[in-house]
């Protein structure tokens, strides 16, 4: 049983709930029971992707990472594939419970996850596919909460851009490579930091978190700025080090930093949409992710 937390990369799960919460915040509506269903669907699909990734890479991992659960024999390939199928089915069932709009987003999201792991990962389209999956996950939260996704597209695009940068760096985490990818990721971080710090041109209509109404404009802006600064601080340094020396250890640290930075970015996007208390709640997942990552690797 100790192999399953490693196979599922459980600490990375802390980067998932913020997708749905940021999507809900972008619509201007508070989270509801359907938002919780979207979070459950996202968690299942994320874990399905993790298991399927190792199943598809089991021969490569036998050469480069023989300690992983599948090549080491601690988990059988058939068991892993069955788990990926079951998790995907559970994700779609939860999305269906959240309503047809949620299922209409979850279905292409599941297809993107499977296409990435089975075919696209080792092609030039790999980073774009991963970015699309993360963007769709945010849209799933919006679709489940209100039935509409239009207002969430800007937040989805920003989160997808961050994921694109992290995935591009991750393609060299076992072999190392040129500094171009971490440099590009560092530049993308700077652009994202600037965009997220600025308030949206048109704040989302509808209801916001009741607690958010108690924050002054200056207070909400301070929360958004602090969360954005936390995002930049989490990822900028490891990207810079990987650019100076793109060795496997430093590249892997850059990937780890990029994954962890997803949480403060989700929090900043949520605060940017006017739901600062929810953003702070998302940010509270950061120390938990860091603590559990000491026991199980997230990459």
Automatic annotation (TrEMBL):
It is found in: Membrane. GO terms for molecular function: transferase activity, transferring alkyl or aryl (other than methyl) groups. The keyword Transcription regulation does not apply. Keywords: Membrane, Transferase, Transmembrane, Transmembrane helix. One of its GO terms (cellular component) is membrane. InterPro entries: Prenyltransferase_related, UbiA_prenyltransferase, UbiA_sf. It is a multi-pass membrane protein. PANTHER family: CHLOROPHYLL SYNTHASE (PTHR42723), CHLOROPHYLL SYNTHASE, CHLOROPLASTIC (PTHR42723:SF1). This is Prenyltransferase. It comes from Streptomyces dysideae.
């Amino acid at each position: 049983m100790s192999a399953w937390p490693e196979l599922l990369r459980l600490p990375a799960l802390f980067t998932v709930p913020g997708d749905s919460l940021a999507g809900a915040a972008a619509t201007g509506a508070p989270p509801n029971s359907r938002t919780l269903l979207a979070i459950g669907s996202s968690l299942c699909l994320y874990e399905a992707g993790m298991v399927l990734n190792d199943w598809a890479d089991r021969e490569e991992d036998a050469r480069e990472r023989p300690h992983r659960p599948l090549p080491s024999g601690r988990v059988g390939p058939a068991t892993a594939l069955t788990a990926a199928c079951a998790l995907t089915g559970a994700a779609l069932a939860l999305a269906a419970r959240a309503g047809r709009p949620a299922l209409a987003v979850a279905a292409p999201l599941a297809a993107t996850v499977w296409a990435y792991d089975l075919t696209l990962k080792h092609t030039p389209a790999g980073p774009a596919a991963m970015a699309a999956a993360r963007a769709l996950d945010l849209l799933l939260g919006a679709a489940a909460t209100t039935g509409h996704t239009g207002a969430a597209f800007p937040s989805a695009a920003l989160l997808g851009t961050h994921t694109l940068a992290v995935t591009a760096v991750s393609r060299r985490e076992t072999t190392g490579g040129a500094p171009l990818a971490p440099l590009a990721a560092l530049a993308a971080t700077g652009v994202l930091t600037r965009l997220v710090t600025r308030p949206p041109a048109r704040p989302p209509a509808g209801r916001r978190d009741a607690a958010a109404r108690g924050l002054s404009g200056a207070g909400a802006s301070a929360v958004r700025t602090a969360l954005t600064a936390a995002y930049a601080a989490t990822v900028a340094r490891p990207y810079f080090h990987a650019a100076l020396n793109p060795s496997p250890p430093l590249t892997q640290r850059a990937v780890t930093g990029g994954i962890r930075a997803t949480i403060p970015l989700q929090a900043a996007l949520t605060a940017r949409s006017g739901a600062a208390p929810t953003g702070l709640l998302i940010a509270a997942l950061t120390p938990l992710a860091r603590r559990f990552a000491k026991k199980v690797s997230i990459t």
